[in-house]
Amino acid sequence: DQQVKQNSPSLSVQEGRISILNCDYTNSMFDYFLWYKKYPAEGPTFLISISSIKDKNEDGRFTVFLNKSAKHLSLHIVPSQPGDSAVYFCAASVYQFYFGTGTSLTVIP
Amino acid sequence: DAGVIQSPRHEVTEMGQEVTLRCKPISGHNSLFWYRQTMMRGLELLIYFNNNVPIDDSGMPEDRFSAKMPNASFSTLKIQPSEPRDSAVYFCASRSDAGLAVQETQYFGPGTRLLVL
Question: Which of B9, B42, B93, B112 could staple B33 via S-S, CB 3.0–4.6 A?
Answer without folding.
Answer: B93
